[in-house]
């Protein structure tokens, strides 16, 4: 706000006066000052005193806490307990500085003092009101509580300044920006990149200065600052700068070396060497070196450069290396051997199958490769016709080491296939593979040998199972016979033992026939029962000890022989 506009429009309290009312207010203030001077002079002449008073109450200071610069604001000061008969002089000072009066007012009849002030930046801070009784030095002056005034100058003229001078940086360099303003105080700052607030980060110190320690390409964009200050919660002033375009350049990455061999019309060959970097902001300087010497250099606005050097087939010509440079960074690529080998040797072709849901072959993958060759060129043929690219039932995919033919098995794909290989830079030498006939019925037909092997395995399993079952039946029958013979043998052996043990007690006759005396029938039954029990126990124990059928038969024969020898002797 200019001085002329302030004169034309003077604020009083919270409203504003037009020019005529402002002039009237100025005249009124002049009249008040004249009357105040006259009253002070009259009081000094009269030497009036304040009857019955020795202490003056503490004044109270009122006024706004925030004000715009170059506006008029009113402040009030009063002593509540003062008498209307007492003339009190009110003076307004900055705290700690009584050398300069901001305003004064003489209250002749106990009214409140008014201080209309034209606000300047120097008024900011604490101010106090001093009240004193005129023409009376006995009563000491009193001072009000301090009152803080915040002077706001609306912000204007925001501008972004690059402190380093340049707006283009290579990644890794620091960035320092400053938001300058032509006027304003109590200002807060916000930084925008491409119209969006810059995220808060320890690396991004957002005050009047913006500092980024290490730039990356993603930091490129239009930088804008917004300066803001406010009078209160509703009156806000802001100033937005014009955008400053900052460009962060990428440092060049390690270059790769690629080369392609071509043939001249005179029959000689040359290599077209390409030095290429995946990253880097142009312009970039590429250089080509061999082990022994510098070959060439070129500065381009691309990320690659090409060089031409002569080559001899099947001769190792050493190693080459690319160098790339932009900004203050120089990087080197890997050493690459310059050795071009013509195609030669055998060409092999084989395939893999793809099986469908019904276990039938529905697709093939043919592979064709050559024994040697740096730049082989492959071609596929069906019945002498070249297959290129992609067709209705095939797809050709060439790789550095081999070529692949994807084939859908069907009626249209039936025929004889083969591939040939030649140099990509010279088609004079061609090597072909063996031919192979492909048909859907042939592929899905089982060979006779496979059928014979499967049937033979099945027949062998059936024979093996039948033999095992027959042997099991024979073994079970023989086991039953052995168990029966063993039981008979054990019974006979037990009866023989009983006969021998009872001979001393008067038993005679055949061991299977037991004769007892008339007067001992109960003892005969007891001995017979005891013998049966013993025979059963012997059978159980002996059956656990004997493990094979041959041992049982041998034991049976020996027992029979013993019985035959002993029974005749006992009969005599």
From TrEMBL:
Residues 141-243, 356-439 form the Ig-like domain. The keyword Lipid metabolism does not apply. InterPro entries: Ig-like_dom (IPR007110), Ig-like_dom_sf (IPR036179), Ig-like_fold (IPR013783), Ig_sub (IPR003599), Ig_sub2 (IPR003598), IgSF_CEA-related (IPR052598), IL-40-like_Ig (IPR040878). Signal peptide: none annotated. The chain crosses the membrane at residues 449-475. Keywords: Disulfide bond, Glycoprotein, Immunoglobulin domain, Membrane, Signal, Transmembrane, Transmembrane helix. SMART domains: IG, IGc2. This is Platelet endothelial cell adhesion molecule isoform X2. The gene is LOC106564359.
């Amino acid at each position: 706000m200019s001085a002329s506009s302030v004169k034309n429009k003077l604020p009083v309290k919270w409203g504003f006066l037009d020019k005529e009312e402002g002039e009237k207010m100025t005249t009124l203030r002049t009249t008040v000052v004249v009357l105040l001077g006259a009253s002070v002079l009259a009081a000094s002449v009269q030497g009036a005193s304040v009857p019955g008073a020795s202490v003056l109450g503490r004044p109270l200071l009122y006024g706004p806490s925030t004000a715009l610069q170059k506006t008029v604001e009113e402040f009030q000061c009063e002593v509540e307990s003062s008498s209307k008969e007492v003339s009190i002089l009110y003076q307004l000072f900055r705290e700690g500085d009584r050398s300069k009066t901001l305003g004064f007012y003489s209250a002749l009849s106990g009214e409140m003092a008014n201080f209309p002030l034209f606000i300047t930046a120097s008024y900011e801070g604490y101010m106090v009101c001093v009240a004193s009784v005129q023409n009376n030095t006995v009563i000491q002056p009193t001072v009000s509580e301090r009152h803080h005034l915040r002077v706001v100058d609306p912000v204007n003229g925001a501008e972004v300044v690059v402190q380093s001078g340049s707006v283009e940086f290579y990644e890794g360099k620091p960035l320092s920006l400053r938001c300058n303003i032509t006027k304003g105080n109590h200002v807060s700052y916000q930084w925008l990149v491409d119209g969006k607030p810059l995220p808060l980060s320890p690396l991004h110190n957002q005050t009047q200065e913006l500092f980024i320690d290490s730039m990356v390409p993603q930091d490129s964009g239009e930088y804008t600052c917004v300066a803001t200050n406010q009078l209160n919660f509703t009156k806000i002033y802001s100033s937005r700068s014009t955008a400053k375009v900052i460009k962060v350049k990428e440092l060049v990455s390690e270059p790769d070396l690629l080369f392609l061999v071509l043939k001249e019309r005179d029959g000689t060959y040359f290599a077209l060497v390409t030095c290429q970097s995946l990253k880097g902001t142009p312009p970039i300087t590429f250089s080509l070196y061999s082990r022994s010497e510098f070959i060439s250099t070129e500065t381009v606005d691309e990320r690659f450069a090409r060089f031409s050097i002569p080559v001899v087939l099947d001769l190792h010509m050493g190693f080459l290396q690319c160098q790339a440079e932009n900004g203050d960074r120089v990087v080197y690529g890997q050493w690459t051997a310059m050795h071009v080998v013509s195609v030669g040797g055998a060409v092999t072709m084989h395939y893999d199958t793809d099986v469908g849901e019904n276990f039938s072959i529905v697709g093939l993958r043919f592979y064709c490769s050559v024994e040697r060759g740096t730049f082989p060129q492959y071609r596929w043929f069906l019945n002498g016709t070249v297959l290129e690219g992609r067709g209705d039932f095939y797809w050709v995919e060439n790789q550095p080491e081999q070529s692949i033919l994807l084939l859908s098995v069907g009626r249209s794909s039936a025929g004889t296939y083969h591939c040939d290989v030649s140099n990509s830079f010279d088609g004079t030498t061609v090597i072909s593979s063996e031919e192979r006939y492909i048909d859907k019925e042939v592929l899905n037909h089982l060979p006779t040998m496979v059928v014979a092997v499967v049937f033979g395995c099945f027949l062998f399993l059936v024979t093996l199972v039948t033999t095992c079952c027959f042997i099991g039946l024979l073994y079970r029958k023989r086991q039953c016979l052995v168990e029966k013979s063993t039981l008979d043998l054990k019974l006979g052996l037990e009866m023989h033992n009983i006969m021998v043990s009872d001979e001393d007690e008067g038993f005679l006759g055949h061991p299977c026939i037991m004769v007892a005396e008339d007067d001992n029938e109960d003892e005969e039954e007891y001995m017979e029962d005891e013998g049966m029990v013993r025979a059963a126990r012997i059978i159980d124990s002996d059956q656990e000890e004997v493990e094979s059928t041959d041992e049982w038969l041998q034991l049976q024969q020996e027992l029979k022989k013993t019985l035959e020898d002993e029974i005749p002797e006992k009969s005599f």
